[in-house]
Amino acid sequence: MLEKVDLSKEMSKEEYKEKMTQLEARIGRLQRECKALKIPVMIVFEGFGAAGKGLQIGKLIQSMDPRGFQVYPIKNETEEERMHPFLWRFWTKTPEKGRIAIYDGSWYRRVLIDRFEKRTKGRELSEAFHSINSFEEQLTQDGNVIVKLFLDISKKEQKKRFEKLQKNKETAWRVTQGDLERNAKYDEYAAMMEEMLFKTDTDYAPWTIIEATDRRFATVKIYATVIKAMADQIEKVSRQAQKKEALDQETEDHLNVSEVAREADRDLRELQVSILSKADLSLKYTREEYEEKLDKLQKKIEKLHGELYRRRIPVVLGFEGWDAGGKGGAIKRLTAKMDARGYAVNPTASPNDIEKAHHYLWRFWRAMPKAGHVAIFDRTWYGRVMVERIEGFCTKAEWQRAYKEMNDMEKDLYDAGAIVIKFWMHIDKDEQERRFKERQQNPEKQWKITDEDWRNREKWDQYEDAVNEMLLRTSTDYAPWVVVEGNDKYYARIKVLKTVVDAIEERLKEK
């Protein structure tokens, strides 16, 4: 790809001024339209050192409202960032809907500079490419515009610019030893860039090569590329709104089709395998058995928690289940002997306004643990394929693609060294009703029961179908689902603790 680029392209001062007058006005207008339509925009600047990324970012933002964008300079990972999965620091920097994020360097550092300096190697490289493509696909499917700009200059031009910077005391600091080494091995580094462009040039997030020898030419092409991407997305969103209006006018036909779909769903439900139906809810322990096992397991967890910290192994535990299924009780016993400085329990409620303004996984990425710590989620990202699916809080297309998105996120966690386990706390409908009534009659537990809990019971069959599909499609060898037979709370708590202990001990053997 790069060998075909004509780096001799240039533009006269007169032509530049004429074009920029129009482009600057357009980009300001498009920024306002993106804000109004709540379209998030991500602009990535990558390329050779001294190609002018900082200069071009400065020129681009001159025509934008500074209240609507943020620039992120991406350098070496901080100690905190190194202790999290590779994409953590980028998920936390994704823009809210209607805002623009500009990246001077990006997630591509992992497959470029880090690779050149041999910090990324072997299997990590292929994992990084997969994670990058998945990251960009998830964001674009959620409505983000990703503009990726690769600034290209020749070895000779790069060396000339480095020498010019080094001659001036005020700019010499900008040329690092790493820059000089990459210039000395320009062809080797260019080959890495070529592979990166080939493996990550996708229809949803394509690369645009910017011939950056002539800075005026580069500026105009960058403006034109960003403008086209924003305009295309605005047109797409507008067309989708018009299409929705047209569909709303065909209500009667739509209802007829919906009835056919519901009948098909009922037919399929009878044929599908029910994972939950295989659970033996008669399993139980006596109080004496429970207390004996609990004491032993909690002592083990206390010791293993210290080993996790010492060996810098992160753990992610997700708890889902029926209302009153025993999530809170299991979490309480699990953490009873753990060092409070080394774990966090994250209760998941309905997303707030800030969380709604981001991709639905954003709030969960922010809570992922650093190396050696444990993150426990009381309700998880799987709400998208359960409550959001059933209650209509997301579209069918959104929850259908969520299975892959969640599998990919959990694979990223696993690749970063995390132990990932997901628990479904399972009880039957009669046991749930008994627990609901017990809560209502106990003044100290009445806060646990709401009208919404009773309403959800009316949709038990729908939730059961959704849960079975979720378990089938997202239980993997790297992030398994564990169905916990929970009619007996003693049995459920012991199974959770034993599963966690076994998983940690197995990982420590590998280490």
Describe this structure as you would to a colleague.
- The chain is an alpha/beta fold.
- It folds into two domains: 2-243, Rossmann fold (3-Layer(aba) Sandwich); 280-510, P-loop containing nucleotide triphosphate hydrolases (Rossmann fold).
- Helix content is 55%, strand content 12%.
- The protein has 21 helices and ten strands.
- The chain has helices at 13-36, 53-61, 79-82, 88-91, 113-116, 123-141, 155-167, 177-184, 186-200, 215-248, 251-271, 287-311, 327-335, 353-356, 362-366, 387-391, 396-415, 429-441, 451-457, 460-474, 489-510; strands at residues 41-47, 69-73, 100-104, 145-152, 207-211, 315-321, 343-347, 374-378, 419-426, 481-485.
- A five-stranded parallel β-sheet has the order 2-3-1-4-5, sandwiched between helices. A five-stranded parallel β-sheet has the order 7-8-6-9-10.
- Helix 1 runs parallel beside helix 10, helix 6 packs antiparallel against helix 17 and helix 8 (177-184) packs across helix 9.
- 32% of the residues are buried.
